[in-house]
Design goal:
With about 325 residues, the chain is of the alpha/beta class. The protein contains 15 helices and 7 strands. GO terms for molecular function: ATP binding; ATP hydrolysis activity; DNA binding; DNA clamp loader activity.
């Protein structure tokens, strides 16, 4: 029997099912009630309900005919100007089917569109407003040109709160007949970091190993270091014990298989929890940002992370 992907199985079918975005859902509901829709732009991090909101709006507006009056395109796959000139334009110019007053085009990850494609899209949005509405989804609204932003009602989605993640995970656990420990639930909230999609996928992967889900399983299948290990790495290096800190780093990189970027991101998160003087934290945050830039530019991750630990030790001694 084919395994059902839970992120699809538990996808919201109506606006009220979307968690963690109460104020936005309330405003979107008014469009469904009035059966009138402007062009919309959803921006925010991954896994916070942008795509689910767009599809829920279409389902509630058009009912059973929603698939005939809706097209979804992922701009990261089809990002050139030809997509706007042909696929989008051809769909926009056709008459809505059934009792629908307009069609809806959903452009996911629109910040991946080239500038030429966005310029062509701007004209298409203006020309076919009477028969078609656009819902544009992006992670970074700054990458969308101003003429498109000015034509849209902009909704900025926030990361999902830990409480909302916990509520949804508990619901799925009950539906699937699983057991989850309190530390396992805390681990899911930690690795999700506001991304509901990541939380649900982590739960399903853990459930394939064991029906009882605990902290160790979650960290193992998500390739995440235990926060206590990261905090200890910081503490040891701050105390000046470089060789011990380097040994702990080796464990994370070689035995647990984490990438240098993974370790750096967790170091950054852990810095907010570690009890250090503010002046020292400022210096360390500045250095973490510098190392992150170097890794992005292709520097050797092992050398950069060891240099970071050495900097931790030297800086504390200098204060």
């Amino acid at each position: 029997m084919k395994e059902i992907i839970w992120i699809e199985k538990y996808r919201p079918n109506k606006l009220e099912d979307i968690v963690g975005q109460k104020e936005i859902i309330k405003r979107l509901r008014s469009y469904v009630v009035s059966r009138n829709l402007p062009h919309l732009m959803f921006s925010g991090p991954p896994g916070v309900g942008k795509t689910a909101s767009a599809i829920s709006i279409v389902r509630e507006l058009f009912g059973e005919e929603w698939q005939s009056n809706f097209i979804e395109l992922n701009a990261s796959d089809e990002r050139g100007i030809d997509v706007v000139r042909y696929k989008i334009k051809n769909f926009a110019r056709t008459v809505p089917l059934g009792k629908a007053d307009f069609k809806i085009i959903f452009l996911d990850e629109a910040d991946a569109l080239t500038s030429d494609a966005q310029s062509a899209l701007r004209r298409t949005m203006e020309k076919y407003t009477s028969s078609c509405r656009f819902i544009i989804s992006c992670n970074y609204s700054s990458k969308i040109i101003e003429p498109i932003q000015s034509r849209c009602a902009i909704y900025r989605f926030k990361p999902i709160s830990d409480e909302a993640v916990e509520e949804r995970i508990q619901y799925i656990v009950e539906q699937e007949g699983l057991n989850i420990t309190s530390d396992g639930l805390d681990a899911i909230k930690y690795v999700a970091h506001g991304d509901m999609r990541h939380a649900i996928n982590a739960l399903q992967e853990a459930a394939m190993i064991d029906k009882t889900i605990n902290m160790d399983t979650i960290y193992q299948i998500t390739a995440t270091a235990h926060p206590a290990e990261i905090a200890e790495l910081i503490t040891v290096s701050i105390k000046g014990n470089f060789l011990s800190a380097r040994s702990k780093l080796d464990n994370l990189l070689l035995e647990q298989g984490l990438s240098g970027e993974d370790v750096l991101i967790q170091l950054h998160r852990a810095m907010f929890e570690v009890n250090l003087p503010d002046k020292l934290k400022l210096k360390l945050f500045d250095k973490i940002g510098e190392v992150d830039f170097r890794l992005t530019e292709g520097a050797n991750e092992r050398i950069q992370l060891e240099a970071l630990l050495a900097y931790f030790a030297i800086t504390n001694e200098a204060l």
